[in-house]
Design a protein that fits this description.
Oligomer: single chain
Order of helices and strands: EHEHEEEEEEEEEEEEE
Distance between the termini: 23 Å
Number of helices: 2
Number of strands: 15
Shape: globular
Largest sheet: 6 strands, antiparallel
Radius of gyration: 18 Å
Number of domains: 2
Structural class: mainly beta
Strand order of the largest sheet: 4-15-6-7-14-5
Strand content: 25-35%
Length: about 210
């Protein structure tokens, strides 16, 4: 077992690497998965805890958190949200889809292209919620674009409601079994069980049967 500060080494998706490198991110460990499997490859025999971020933060009382990625998270896992004295733990009830951002400009009824602050986590074919409360509507993503022209999401049907700049757009996120007790800022890290020096590490994400 080794403690991995920051991005570290070992298998990781882009979202996991970004979360690990975020300011204040907790150290994570890499160790042999306790299923006894040994393929003589560090790439498959060793794992690190899943990690992601809250692109738009989270409010006290929330039971659903919008995250940049959901890879390797699963119901029943205990996650730590935030870091240091600003952290808290929760148990995952269900895992939905990734993505959380805000509209970069107002949109009108009939629009299909939504300028956004960022597109991380969103994928074609995904259902997203736009806005909240009485103004909320859902849409299916037809195209995700960045680069020249700015970050934007194209939906497959015209919007039914006008939305102001700053309107939230998100996937279904991760639902937790208890309410958050504190606010968490944009970019806060979400990770599963941390290293447990002097005791066996906990890896609650099972590998597929081989």
């Amino acid at each position: 077992m080794a403690v991995v500060p920051g991005a570290g080494s070992g298998p990781a998706t882009a979202n996991i690497a970004a979360a690990a490198a975020a300011p204040g991110a907790p150290n994570r460990s890499i160790g042999r998965f306790p299923d006894g499997h040994d393929a003589d490859s560090l790439c498959t025999d060793f794992v690190v805890q899943p990690a992601t971020t809250l692109p738009e933060g989270a409010a006290p009382g929330a039971t659903n958190i919008k995250v940049a990625g959901v890879a390797e998270f699963a119901p029943g896992q205990t996650v730590m949200i935030g870091s240091g004295s600003a952290s808290e733990t929760a148990v995952i009830g269900s895992v939905g889809t990734a993505g959380s951002t805000r509209a970069g400009a107002p949109t009108q009824v009939g629009d299909t292209v939504i300028p956004v602050a960022a597109t991380a986590g969103f994928v074609v074919g995904q259902s997203i919620a736009i806005d909240s409360g009485a103004n909320q509507e859902t849409a299916t993503i037809a195209l995700v674009q960045g680069g020249r022209g700015g970050a934007r999401i194209t939906v497959n049907a015209p919007l039914k409601i006008a939305h102001p700049a700053g309107t939230p757009l998100a996937g279904s996120g991760i639902t937790i079994t208890t309410s958050l007790t504190r606010a968490h800022p944009r970019g806060a890290v979400v990770t599963t069980e941390l290293p447990t020096p002097g005791a066996a590490n906990k890896y609650s994400n099972p590998r597929a049967a081989r």
